Amino acid sequence: MQIEKKDIRALSKDQLREFFVSNGDKAFRGNQVYEWLWSKGAHNFDDMTNVAKTTRQMLEENFVINHIRVDQMQKSEDGTVKNAVRLHDGLVVESVLIPTNTRTTACVSSQVGCSLDCNFCATARLKRMRNLNPDEIYDQVLAIDNESKLYHNRPLSNIVFMGMGEPLMNYNNVIKAIDKIVSPEGLGMSPKRITVSTSGIPKMIKKLADDEVKFRLAVSLHSAIDEIRSRIMPFSQNFPLSDLRESLEYWYNKTRSKITYEYVVWKGINDNKASVDALVKFCKYVPCKVNLIEYNPIDDGEFQQASEESINEYIKALEKNDIVVKVRRSRGKDIDAACGQLANKEA
């Protein structure tokens, strides 16, 4: 009977060392293989050139490397790159490289599809198939780091968990992936250059604070009025703004780290004075900054970009109250790589 091979990247370094010792080899061999798997991103055992051929054969007999494959890569006229990433079981997610003059940012996915039901987001229309494993998240980052070096002659500078899926609904795997990304044995990236974006799940935000994470937190807010927010993001009926506020206060008291609010202004939905005033009030609870995000339509007419005049009303009110605000113009719209557009159209 053929044994089912285990994904080798599910093993810790200590477990790898134990495997080699139990097979009559030296423990340090586990260190070598671990380095190949993570910091060198080996796709198969034959890549491990400083490991004896007999040892590589033993690994091949016992394990697999469930590596992602970039199935399709699209380049936008603005330099943005979108990857359609094929997973080992055939499912597809998307990730994006976003370049500016000063940085290159990876936007990565955490789920195949999404657990939530935000009406304005293409990904939310996909059924959640499964959570991504830590190595699948890590591989997206590694692929984009390589693309950044290839196309922009510099390594990746920032990572945002703003791709497909709700990161806090895949909590353990996202945390493990970030641990690998910041580890000197992984990519050695500073956690301050990583932002995890959530639609706002109070219990999990508190857990982040209790776990003393060092990365940044962003919240997709879009309205500080419960009735409007529930229309935009129906799942938020279970997480009223009072609960979200309490969790964010808890986060700040524990971490002393500012929140970023992601906020899209839509015509006829939240482009009114009551919405502006409610956001200003909400921003005063916890030190924060606001990113006003350009909306990217997803085929139907319910959600439409608000006028520049409406967006300027938000900017004036926020700045008047000493709240940092930036307008984020979308990148990669011509290849459906902009915020809210990731939907596996090629899968």
Automatic annotation (TrEMBL):
Positions annotated to bind [4Fe-4S] cluster: 114, 118, 121
Binding residues for S-adenosyl-L-methionine: 165-166, 197, 220-222, 296
Enzyme Commission no: 2.1.1.192
Catalytic activity: adenosine(37) in tRNA + 2 reduced [2Fe-2S]-[ferredoxin] + 2 S-adenosyl-L-methionine = 2-methyladenosine(37) in tRNA + 5'-deoxyadenosine + L-methionine + 2 oxidized [2Fe-2S]-[ferredoxin] + S-adenosyl-L-homocysteine; adenosine(2503) in 23S rRNA + 2 reduced [2Fe-2S]-[ferredoxin] + 2 S-adenosyl-L-methionine = 2-methyladenosine(2503) in 23S rRNA + 5'-deoxyadenosine + L-methionine + 2 oxidized [2Fe-2S]-[ferredoxin] + S-adenosyl-L-homocysteine
Gene3D superfamilies with a match to the protein in the record: 1.10.150.530, Aldolase class I
Cofactor note: Binds 1 [4Fe-4S] cluster. The cluster is coordinated with 3 cysteines and an exchangeable S-adenosyl-L-methionine.
Residue ranges of domain Radical SAM core in the record: 100-334
Cellular component terms (Gene Ontology): cytoplasm
Pfam families assigned: Radical_SAM, RlmN_N
Note: Reaction proceeds by a ping-pong mechanism involving intermediate methylation of a conserved cysteine residue.
UniProt family annotation: Belongs to the radical SAM superfamily. RlmN family.
Protein purpose: Specifically methylates position 2 of adenine 2503 in 23S rRNA and position 2 of adenine 37 in tRNAs.
Protein name in the entry: Probable dual-specificity RNA methyltransferase RlmN
Organism: Flavobacterium endophyticum
Taxonomic path: Bacteria, Pseudomonadati, Bacteroidota, Flavobacteriia, Flavobacteriales
